[in-house]
Amino acid sequence: MTYDLLDIEQDTYRYETTGLCEAWEKAILLDEEGDLWAELHYMHIADVSKKVTEFLKTFCESKRLNTDKANIKDLMPQYQKELNKYSTHLHLADDCMKHFKGSVEKPCSVEQDLAMGSDAEREKIKDSMKLILQVLLDAAVPSYDKIRVLLLYILLRNGVSEENLAKLIQHANVQAHSTLIRNLEQLGGTVTNPGGSGASSRLEPRESVEPTYQLSRWTPVVKDMMEDAVEDRLDRKLWPFIFNPTPAASSQAAVSAHFSHWHKNKAGVETRAGPDS
């Protein structure tokens, strides 16, 4: 999210901070060597500010426990260094949220509703056209975000009529990118359908039992497929080679047969059914 929304150059985050009488620019290198960045950068943005605050509280408490008036002056440089580190990451998280609330939240919400076929309250979406218009007509939403929502709508409708496509492109004010939209057909998608919108091509996701955020409800179908493969729940009719590889004399076939059951041969190794937190 940081690299998507903020102006990060050469892995360096820059921001302006103010003192009593002046303002100056600060810079921090975002790399795996930084222990705080390494721990936070894969976390959901909703958890980052809370986590940094917890780290800061723990740090301050430890200093109060381990520091007395006799040596606090000697420890101040290191103390300030740590405080600056926490302050910078709080500023980074706040900066991301400002950009997110500005023009990103609305397209994300619409994308989730389209992909899931229901809103955050699990109410079925009855008018997907009305849903996408709130993004297409919003001048604050960047053109490429509008195009992404428009392409998702077209894919889920299995194409739209030529007339409706022209209207949607006009509403979004992305006429300059109409070729980009039509080129979806080069990837096997249906953009225009002479009979109007076809049947929905949405693959229904499995109902998640994991707690999710409203804007993180959709998960790729391939995730369900991989979990089924690990737990031997794949449909044998759809995946016959996984269970009954075709016999062949070549060494390649033997290798394929071996790796079709790779997850069964790791005795004693714990298998996780989802992504790392």
Count the DSSP helices. 11
Strand order, largest beta sheet: 1-2
Low-pLDDT sequence parts = 65-75, 266-277
Q: State the share of residues found in helices, binned by percent.
A: 40-55%
The coarse silhouette is globular
The overall pLDDT average reads: 77
Distance between the termini: 16 Å
Helix-strand string: HEEHHHHHHHHHH
Gyration radius, to the nearest Å? 26 Å
The tally of beta strands, per DSSP, is 2
How does the major sheet shape up?
Answer: 2 strands, antiparallel
As a percent range, the share of strand residues is: 5-15%
Content-based structural category: mainly alpha
Protein name: Syntaxin-binding protein 2
Keywords: Protein transport, Transport
Pfam families: Sec1
Family: Belongs to the STXBP/unc-18/SEC1 family.
Task: Give a verbal description of the structure.
The chain is mainly α and 277 residues long. The chain has eleven helices and two strands; from the N terminus they run H-E-E-H-H-H-H-H-H-H-H-H-H. The protein has helices at residues 2-5, 35-40, 45-66, 72-116, 128-136, 143-156, 162-172, 178-182, 221-230, 240-243, 251-259; strands spanning 12-18, 23-29. Strands 1-2 form a two-stranded antiparallel sheet. A hairpin with a 4-residue loop joins strand 1 (12-18) and strand 2. The model is unreliable at 65-75 and 266-277 (pLDDT under 50).
Secondary structure blueprint with pairings:
Elements: H1 2-5, E1 12-18, E2 23-29, H2 35-40, H3 45-66, H4 72-116, H5 128-136, H6 143-156, H7 162-172, H8 178-182, H9 221-230, H10 240-243, H11 251-259
Antiparallel strand pairs: 1-2
